[in-house]
From TrEMBL:
Cofactor: Mg(2+)
Transmembrane segments: none
MF (Gene Ontology): 4-coumarate-CoA ligase activity; ATP binding
Protein's name according to its UniProt entry: 4-coumarate--CoA ligase
Organism in which the protein naturally occurs: Salix brachista
Amino acid sequence: MDTMMNPQEEFIFRSKLPDIFIPKNLPLHTYVLENLSKHSSKPCLINGANGDVYTYADVELTVRRVASGLNKIGIQQGDVIMLFLPSSPEFVLAFLGASHRGAITTAANPFSTPAELAKHAKASKAKLLITQACYYEKVKDFSQENGVKIMCVDSAPDGCLHFSDLTQADENEMPRVDLHPDDVVALPYSSGTTGLPKGVMLTHKGLITSVAQQVDGENPNLYFHSEDVILCVLPMFHIYALNSIMLCGLRVGASILILPKFEIGSLLGLIEKYKVSIAPVVPPVMLAIAKSADLDKHDLSSVRMLKSGGAPLGKELEDTVRAKFPQARLGQGYGMTEAGPVLAMCLAFAKEPFDIKPGACGTVVRNAEMKIVDPETGASLPRNQPGEICIRGDQIMKGYLNDPEATSRTIDKQGWLHTGDIGFIDDDDELFIVDRLKELIKYKGFQVAPAELEALLLAHPEISDAAVVGMKDEDAGEVPVAFAVKSEKSQVTEDEIKQYISKQVNPTLQSISFLLIAVFPLVADKRAHHDFDDAGDILQENKTSVLHRSYSQGTVRKNPEEKSERKVGRHVIEDVNLTLYFISLMIEKMSMDQGKDMYQTQEHYCFCIKAL
């Protein structure tokens, strides 16, 4: 029988686990090392690159010295330091030392280009860059032009500070710092649901809440304990490793095995050598492990938990990994930098585990609320109805740095953070993600903002229009595909555009695919405010039936009388050449609905495009 839904009714979902006490008045560094006396002599940080070990007592003392050293070189409460480092013990010590000093840490991918780094450092107003000597040339010009200090953790070039200036400081000279729970302690950068990367202000209270939601309580959602050895092969500049590996591992007194980079051969050997019990990874790493010809050469029976995050874990890969690691619990979580980052966690990881369903990304974390809303009306939806996932709790960000408009678009007046992801909650409180409203492309677990790549393309004098979309890929999850419209009379080639882009993006993105499109006239003044039936007619008139099929599946407009701006995929029609707009949509829908069966190669795409 059909039932009428009360328009005033709110459908709010909570964890299956009971709420817990969270000590939100502590500074972050105090909270994560609160149980120091229980395990002061046990290994805390293990450097997988050289075997060096820091005990918990070593870490606690060094953190206080780093804080004192930061004060001595002029870093004040509220100042920003930037870590331009691969995962390393120095990353952990600098982050916690900055927290102790009352400073804020932002971190950048070491593969960033000098231009990307400068933009990040300038936006965050970083006062100190901590890096390795091999990256000095990338940071030198920015440092000299802006008066920002450079510190190296290994050999220091002339004019640079050395990390020993911090680690050998007198811990007793550190002045008292009065910290407030709402003070910002971390400033990761994220594109959010749209646009270019923005500084995400995470507070002491917020990160403590997020860590506690995962590992605190009698039946923790994420059962780490002090006898665990936790693998950290993911980059600490990413919030996943920073929060769910580094901070959670420190909180429970586990040993953290840190690898500066991912190499499958050495990874398997180190898992065996150190008897790793917890392996938090992303799907591409999980795939590499499962496919490795050397897997059976190593004893990996110590692994009791394989935790996937950063991107969806496909059922086929999940089944393959289960067969390879029959002794381990396998599942996934769901996070977003702005959410602190964890929204949902698989309850198979709990101390007292629950049964879970394939494809689910967990249940909402404790001490938080989740709801699913209609993207058009904002009304909350009951179980089994897909809508935008929203989260509320003390763990979410304070806001975007110096961007109140973007903050208000993401966090509403009732305190709900809107994720831009589409999902539903089933009858067993499990969350399933089915689609994405937001623009981001997830390449090997990393955020790629299409707007950033489009801006680079549009800066080229012979490119008049551009669009970047994601396409599914077995190894990477998604890969960026760029479409560029040549300026009239331009003779530029695809290879020239690729070379132009490769000089400006970090190596991670140099595998991007490009399709160069001939010049198209704008259609009927771009038809910005015509409904999609009119747009469909335009496509039919141009004999683009394949595009029309994709377009008709992609429309999100429900009211045919509505005349406001319409969005399909990422672009508003008035912002892009209409033809290019629907080409982007075709690929976007193809990647979601048809995989690579219909259009396997770039030549097929070109054929469809040229058919216009």
